[in-house]
Amino acid sequence: MKKIVKSLFFSAFAFALTLPSFSQKLTNAENTLAADLKKVIRDYPHQFAHLRGNMIEETPQTASYECTLELPGAETSSITKYSAKKENIYSWQAIMLTTESFDEAKKKFRSLYSQLNNLTVKMDYGETFYLKGKYAVPVEEKNFTSAVFSFQDADQLTYKMKVEVSMQYELLEWKVRLLVYDHERDDAEQGEQVE
Question: In 117-160, which residue ranges form alpha helices assigned H by DSSP?
Fold first, then answer.
């Protein structure tokens, strides 16, 4: 009996020691994701030039490139150049999860939103901004949900930049993505102001 109690005690003790390590790993992964996403955001004014790798595919309207930064937890990441009359427009995206489970995708969507909302980003040229976005509750009947973040008090270099976490049902699977892209508001478009 003493051996069983002793064995249980040591098992419980060993388990208790691993809990802080496990939660610390989760926190470290979240910190690494935030730090790497800040690198992506800082390279936005440079059209992601420091992160663009080899060309993957080219069409008359677009060119897709590998992203040289490996974002923690990302299945894939890429940079796309869109040809435009005035200047080329670039976007960055990472697929963070592909799953058949709506609940798993919803959980990942919420986690990414929480990591991005109020994220502080200090740009290379010294300005500091805070990402602000409104949470949208995913509903399984809707095949698409997104939370779009923008910088409060954006400057001339960042006023068109949007950061987005999206959840979309495609070909019997849910995909959760992170995106950084240009978006110039159309004159007739009404957007919600986040205070």
Answer: none
Question: Encoding tokens for residue 56?
Answer: 């993957």
pLDDT (tens digit per residue) in 89-106: 999 999 999 999 999 999
Against a cut of 0.90, is the pTM above it? Answer: no
Spatial separation of the C-alpha atoms in residues 123 and 158, rounded to whole Å = 10
Q: Where are the alpha helices (DSSP H) in the chain?
A: 2-43, 102-116
Which residue, among 86, 51, 83, has the nearest Cα to 65 in the 3D structure? 51
**Angle formed by the axes of helices 2-43 and 102-116, nearest 10°:** 60
Q: In this predicted model, what pLDDT tens digit does every residue of 63-91 receive, in sequence order?
A: 999 999 999 999 999 999 998 878 889 99
Q: Are 68 and 51 in contact (CB under 8 A)?
A: yes
Phi then psi dihedrals of residue 106, to 5 deg: -60, -40
E strands in 110-172? 120-122, 128-133, 144-151, 161-170
